[in-house]
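User: Hey, my collaborator sent me this sequence without any context and asked if I could get a structure. I don't really work with proteins. Can you help?
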Amino acid sequence: MPRIGNLATQKALQLITAPAGLNSSIGAISREESLLLPVIGTKQVFAQNVAAEMAERDLETSYPAVHLYCEKLTNTLKETFRTFSGQAQMAIEVRVSNDRLQGLEQRLQLYVDAVAQVLDKSRGDWGGGMFYTGGYEAVFGGVKRGGKNYIQTAKITFDLQVSV
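Assistant: No problem. I've predicted the 3D structure and written it out in structure-token form, which is a compact way to encode the shape of the chain:
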């Protein structure tokens, strides 16, 4: 069953890092809002569930950063003769840091909007027995010490239907 979580994470990673993925949405939002919103490089995207404090110590972290991972697998056996037939609950964490509080939350919300746009455009078959029907939940965390001085995180969760 863990293989399914890894496959789902890789599918989400491909979606986020694709040319029409997250950076394309960030560019569109930057133009709409007349703001310079930095794009997210490949070294700022991690397929790993790691706390911000640990990431800063052990990874070469620069901000903004995105962490993708499978949070939960549920095998409901909807399809009787399948090995796995259920849901993979996925999480995308967006982390933004700044030396001042001013504008931190606004930038985080814009990055979350960009992730939401990518998900909205990606409804349907993801291949490999994975299907995204749409819908997500975004939870915004409070500002903490870390990063360049202050760090704030938002977590977007969504479900993938899996049948393998």
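In plain terms: DSSP finds four helices and eight strands in the chain. You can pass these tokens on to your collaborator as they are.
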